[in-house]
Design goal:
Elements (H helix, E strand, L loop, with lengths): L1 E5 L13 H14 L5 E5 L11 H20 L4 E4 L7 H7 L4 E3 H12 L3 E5 L5 H11 L5 E8 L6 H9 L5 H14 L4 E5 L3 H7 L12 E3 H19 L14 H10 L2
Helix pairs in contact: 1-8, 2-3, 4-9
């Protein structure tokens, strides 16, 4: 089974070095959680806004993400994972291809509801909350979350702290994450979602899967997305169940898709 993990940023970000530390960390997650015979390839956008704190920036990025999803199907991938918590372009991508397309955000929400009654999401910057909340409401999961379900660490995590966190998450990441987590637990959360496509894998590969001093599990959307992608591929192969084409995800004719793709090449 071949799965594409589509990152929503470029491989190198201006002003930041050691980005490979993050990419190596993601690859460690793939090794840790994939089933035998599953291969995951990490790819980046050649052109990206490298900014997820804006509806406008995400909309621009989605063109490139959807194109990469279409290319993945053409290249023989069995599924695609969108590696950002806001699941950029997920419905549009699902419409355009026949292979499963899963997002780390939706996957995390689905798994959290199997592990507890009320979840909360801890993200890396309050400016990302509107984008994530939009998707949470779109999915219809808000009634399984606590009030004020998406909360951010303060001050926000920086890219340098992401990089350092893959080397030692207990230095910057976990203490601030735990601080917000305990507030969420007091407000009724019995499951905590790591609300970032980098932070979740970072915590998983470090073995940090439960809030310290509690029995509250942490859901990593990366792990959830990998296991759900594998499940959807197997359901399609073994029992013939795949995405609905009755309404929302019915693709336009191939001629229309190809015409649109040419506009952006």
């Amino acid at each position: 089974m071949k799965i594409l993990w589509q990152n929503n940023s470029s491989e190198m970000i201006t002003g930041e070095d050691k980005m490979e530390t993050i990419w190596d960390g993601l690859k460690k997650l793939y090794v840790k959680v994939t089933s035998p015979g599953t291969e995951i390839k990490l790819e980046h956008l050649s052109v990206s806004t490298n900014y997820v704190r804006s509806f406008y920036a995400e909309f621009y990025n989605n063109i490139g993400i959807i194109e990469k999803v279409i290319q993945a199907e053409e290249q023989g991938f069995d599924a695609v994972i969108l590696g950002c918590m806001s699941d950029p372009g997920i419905w549009e991508a699902r419409e355009a291809v026949d292979i499963p397309v899963v997002g780390v955000g939706e996957s995390a929400y689905l798994i959290a509801q199997l592990l507890g009654i009320r979840f909360a999401v801890i993200t890396v910057d309050e400016k990302i909350i509107p984008n994530m909340k939009k998707k949470l409401n779109l999915y219809g999961f808000s009634n399984r979350a606590i009030s004020k379900p998406i909360r951010a660490v303060n001050p926000p995590f920086t890219t340098k702290e992401y990089i350092d966190g893959f080397e030692d998450p207990y230095k910057y990441i976990i203490p601030r994450f735990e601080e917000v987590a305990h507030e969420c637990i007091k407000d009724g959360a019995d499951v905590i979602i790591a609300g970032c496509g980098y932070i979740g894998p970072m915590l998983t590969i470090s073995g940090y899967t439960k809030i310290k001093g509690t029995e509250v599990p942490i859901v990593d959307g990366g792990t959830a997305a990998i296991k759900l992608a594998e499940l959807l591929v197997e359901m399609k192969e073994k029992v013939g169940v795949s995405k609905s084409k009755h309404s929302y995800f019915a693709p336009p004719p191939k001629s229309v898709i190809n015409k649109i793709r040419k506009l952006y090449k």
